[in-house]
């Protein structure tokens, strides 16, 4: 692309996008050594997955078709489902090429979608999926026809995976933007709960089968699941080569055609979601949302004395209600116990033990989820900087707001779990574990969000996207904060676990320990995190403004 | 200029202590030096305009003078308090309108001004009456219950100004306060600021609209490439010509465009 030579034929926009993605990737790597580290780590992890799973696929080459087929369909279907759903709850999607940036260019939307699709393949998850999909060609190298079908199916399924992740996140973001915030929690929670059902069902089908030691039982289960999944969008492409290997050419071609149709449908849905995002560009809910509503927690907070920390708490509570990013985070918290209910129900086995874990798990997730709270303020955090707000008041306000609604939820989950499982004798253990984890989480988060903030999606942006360049810092901050929370929770977790496996009266020790450690860790965290924030105000502001 | 270790900094001008005093402020971003040993004194009670071309370092300088950005070297003294030694004390009587930062825009306009007042530690009833009065003065009374995210750019600027004013600061630092503001609102803001200075307050504002600075300010500093090219009373700086002419002469870099960009006049191929 020499600048002085007039381009006779303009390069195809798809290729321009792919090149742009590579250039951005290169630029990011050159700018930050941490990104190199993250990429290497991710590549190693991806490589490990590819090698292990690839070896499995190769081994299936020498298994009968009615063994290899169901296994590939079930595992492959899970992979497609993972691509579609995991970005909604965790990680987000890599928005290096943010579609909204291209609205001012006269790029045809079809070309944009195709280009973004190809660019989406660049990266460890895309590459790993493509390699593993192609590894199924080895599994099906039983006749030339089967190989041909397998190659086509592998390409189709990989593209479907990438497109599905974009379509679900773009559509969910559009929904979040469009509706009144009051309704959003219900929507997100509902969608995730519905989505969690089949995912968990299949996962349990496999795990549960694995627990039944007989391999035949496992295989039977896989066969019955595959018989269904093979005709759903998740499994069509995976099942086609098995048909070909069996010599059922008609079925193979039918499934392949349907799989291509699925890909086209997903791409269409993505394009439609993109169009909606374009038509209402920028940010906010244009719902004319007025601020008159007050809630119980609002009224409680207002009773508290005049203090900057109380003001911060009140502001945070409003954000928990009005900002889609907080709503998503809150909804994920609500979904966690739901999953724990769905798992045993779908298994038809005892719900009890799982329900007991709901409260503590939710408490851990809730406390931990605050570890990057400042980043959600984005550059609006400047208001805290210029007003000379003390760090400890900033910390205390955020903790107060979160605890005001999370602590009741956690306690209700614990009590409900104990009652439903019929193990009220374990209530002290469960309550102790939950409040202990929550206190440790609040304390660690108060320090972490001052020490290791990392860029988060800016207000009004797609809450499911991961800002560029944040990957390594994100990973380190997330792993370290959850590790420290676990360590600080040991004084409550150890007696709680002893109570579950041994005499339940030990649970009282967990509760007693929690009553000491939870306030202690929270106060220490607020104080140290506050002092840290006082020293690092401009640096924290610079980090969280960087998107 | 000065400000290196061992080299004495220029003494502050005689007379009453300046409201804002910057000494040897320096900020580098990688290889580029955005602000280069910058010295500036803003006399108390003055209406001070900071002008400069794009990328001159105006925002960087004002950010370092208000606690938003840590300088590599140098000091910022706000109403006698060293900002980077004791930020909390120095920020107490300082009001800031930063440029290019978001607001807590999921709050309504009224809530946002209240919030800023409460962060400043003002009692709730004082905040309540001041917030209502400010919104009224700025013509935002009807928009009070609307979320700031739904405001226009000009309204957003005005609500940010209300936030900067709510604690009755003695020094106001405003980065581009008139950007995106319509003429009517601009007149309102000018009136508020002029009255504020008449009452003994000090205003520092940055702008690249020379006419506005010339009309409004009694002192002016011309900044380019992170240095002060000229500073002082307006008449001394403009030296008998219009500020814009003086500015272009000081900053330089005006290009003669005869003959270039011909393709722009012929339309697309």
Largest interface: A-B, 43 and 39 residues
Give the CA-CA distance, first to last residue of chain A: 30 Å
Rounded to an integer in angstroms, the radius of gyration calculated over CA atoms of chain A is: 25 Å
N- to C-terminal separation of chain B? 51 Å
Mean pLDDT of chain A: 80
**Quaternary structure annotation:** heterodimer
Shape of chain B: globular
Number of helical runs of chain B? 10
Per DSSP E runs of 2 or more residues, the count of β-strands of chain B stands at 10
Q: Helix proportion of residues of chain A, in percent? A: over 70%
Which CATH architecture of the largest domain in chain B?
3-Layer(aba) Sandwich
Task: Explain what the structure shows.
The complex is a heterodimer of chains A (about 550) and B (about 270). Chain A is mainly alpha-helical and about 550 residues long. Chain A has helices at about 15-30, 35-60, 65-90, 110-120, 125-140, 145-180, 180-210, 215-230, 235-245, 250-280, 295-305, 310-320, 325-345, 350-370, 375, 380-385, 390-420, 425-450, 470-500, 505-545; strands spanning about 95, 465. Chain A is globular, with a radius of gyration of 25 Å. The model of chain A is unreliable at about 1-5, about 180-185, about 205-215 and about 280-290 (pLDDT under 50). In chain A, strands 1-2 form a two-stranded parallel ribbon. Chain B has about 270 residues and is an alpha/beta fold. Chain B folds into two domains: about 1-95 and about 170-250, Rossmann fold; about 100-170, no CATH class. Chain B is built from ten helices and ten strands. Chain B has helices at about 60-65, 85-90, 110-120, 125-135, 155-165, 185-200, 210-215, 235-240, 245-250, 260-265; strands at about 20-30, 30-40, 45-50, 75-80, 80, 95, 170-175, 200-205, 220-225, 225-235. In chain B, the strands form two sheets. In chain B, strands 6-7-8-3-9-10 form a six-stranded mixed beta sheet, with helices on both faces. In chain B, strands 2-1-4-5 form a four-stranded antiparallel beta sheet. The longest helix of chain B is centred in the C-terminal third of the chain and has 16 residues, at about 185-200. Chain B is globular. The interface of A and B includes residues 387 and 389 of A.
